[in-house]
C-alpha cells in the first residue's frame, strides 16, 4: 500500500499509481480468509477502501491485454455492473457479446471523456493496463490512473489484478465476508491441509 494521494510532481500534479519493480514488494496490508476472493477483498478494504459491488466500471487496456480482459469483464457485466470502455477496448469486448458504452480518451475531447467520468464520481472501478508505445496512449493512461487516485476510486493495472478483483467482488456480493479470531482461522486452514 502506498499513499499515492500524498505524492506530487514538482509542478504539484498527482502521480501515476503504476508500480515499478522496486515498488511492487512494498506493502502494509494483508487479507486473510479461507478463500482467495475473501482475502483479496479484505486486503483491498484495508489498503484503499472496499471494492465496489455495483456501479460503472471503466475499462481501457493495452492491446496485448484486450483478449485477456474478456472473461473477467464479462463476469463483472453478469454481476450487474455497467461497462464503459475506450473505443479499442470496447470494440473487442463487444465482439465477445459484452454490452459496452464507449467513452472518448482524455486527449480526444475535454468533456465526457474517461477522466471527466472519473473526476465526476461516475465510475466505481477503473481497469487500466499501461500501453507500451505511443505518447498519447502513455499520457492518457497516466491521466486516467491519476484521476482514479485523486477520486479515491480503485484502479487495477494488471490482468492478474483484475482476476483477483473479480473474485473479491463476487465474495462481497455473496456476503462471504466475516471477521473471526486469527486462532479460529488457523484451525480451519490447518484442518483443510
Automatic annotation (TrEMBL):
Gene3D superfamilies linked: ATP-grasp fold, B domain, Methylglyoxal synthase-like domain
UniProt KW keywords: Amino-acid biosynthesis, Arginine biosynthesis, ATP-binding, Ligase, Nucleotide-binding
GO biological process per UniProt: glutamine metabolic process
Cellular-component GO terms for this entry: cytoplasm
A Gene Ontology molecular function term of the record: carbamoyl-phosphate synthase (glutamine-hydrolyzing) activity
EC number: 6.3.5.5
Major enzyme class: ligase
InterPro entries named among the record's database cross-references: MGS-like_dom (IPR011607), MGS-like_dom_sf (IPR036914), MGS_CPS_CarB (IPR033937)
MGS-like domain sequence ranges: 49-192
PROSITE patterns the record matches: MGS (PS51855)
Protein known as: carbamoyl-phosphate synthase (glutamine-hydrolyzing)
Amino acid at each position: 500500500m502506498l499513499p499515492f494521494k500524498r505524492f506530487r510532481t514538482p509542478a504539484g500534479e498527482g502521480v501515476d499509481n503504476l508500480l515499478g519493480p522496486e515498488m511492487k514488494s512494498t506493502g502494509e496490508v494483508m487479507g486473510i480468509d479461507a478463500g482467495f476472493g475473501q482475502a483479496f477483498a479484505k486486503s483491498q478494504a484495508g489498503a484503499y477502501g472496499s471494492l465496489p459491488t455495483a456501479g460503472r466500471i471503466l475499462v481501457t487496456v493495452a492491446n496485448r491485454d484486450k483478449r485477456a480482459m474478456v472473461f473477467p469483464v464479462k463476469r463483472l457485466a453478469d454481476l450487474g455492473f455497467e461497462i464503459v470502455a475506450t473505443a479499442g477496448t470496447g470494440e473487442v469486448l463487444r465482439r465477445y457479446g459484452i454490452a459496452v458504452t464507449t467513452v472518448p480518451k482524455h486527449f480526444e475531447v475535454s468533456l465526457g471523456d474517461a477522466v471527466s467520468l472519473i473526476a465526476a464520481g461516475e465510475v466505481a472501478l477503473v481497469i487500466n493496463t499501461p500501453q507500451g508505445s505511443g505518447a498519447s496512449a502513455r499520457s492518457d493512461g497516466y491521466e486516467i490512473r491519476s484521476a482514479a487516485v485523486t477520486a479515491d476510486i480503485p484502479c487495477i493495472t494488471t490482468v492478474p489484478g483484475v482476476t483477483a478483483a473479480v473474485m473479491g467482488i463476487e465474495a462481497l456480493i455473496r456476503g462471504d465476508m466475516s471477521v473471526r479470531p486469527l486462532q479460529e482461522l488457523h484451525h480451519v486452514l490447518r484442518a483443510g491441509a
